[in-house]
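F.,

This is the one I mentioned.
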């Protein structure tokens, strides 16, 4: 008799349990990648930018440091531009939130721009700096 009551009770609870599990799933926001922060500096230590600046000398390493959310398993592209010269760096994103960085040794003086774009080519941020 107890087995029958348990079986009947389970049959009545099953639709409720199924609806709870369906509605308990996390919703996809559809917002995609969000750039939380982007900075330029002279080094990265312990996953943090150090010596934040926008003024550099020829042959300096210029570090681009970014923090993103919503991009686990995706990639970013940094495009470094000086006049007609363009250089690119790929940045892997392994989770959310995620901090990543790259650097460019700047050998040309002048005004530079580095653009951070998502994997679809949408520019998320432009940063400018000077090389003297």
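My design for it:
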């Amino acid at each position: 008799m107890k087995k029958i009551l348990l079986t009947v009770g389970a049959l009545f609870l099953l639709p409720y349990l199924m609806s709870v599990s369906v509605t308990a799933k996390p919703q996809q926001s559809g917002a995609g990648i969000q750039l939380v922060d982007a900075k330029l500096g002279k080094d990265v230590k312990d996953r943090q930018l150090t010596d934040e600046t926008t003024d550099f000398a020829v042959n300096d390493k210029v570090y681009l440091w970014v923090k993103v959310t919503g991009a686990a398993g995706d990639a970013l592209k940094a495009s470094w531009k000086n006049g007609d010269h363009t250089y690119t760096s790929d940045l892997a994103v392994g989770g959310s939130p995620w901090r990543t960085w790259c650097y460019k040794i700047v050998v040309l003086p002048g005004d530079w721009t580095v653009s951070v774009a998502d994997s679809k080519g949408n520019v998320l941020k432009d940063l400018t700096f000077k090389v003297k």
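Residues 34-131 form a domain with the Immunoglobulin-like fold (CATH 2.60.40.1930).

Talk soon.
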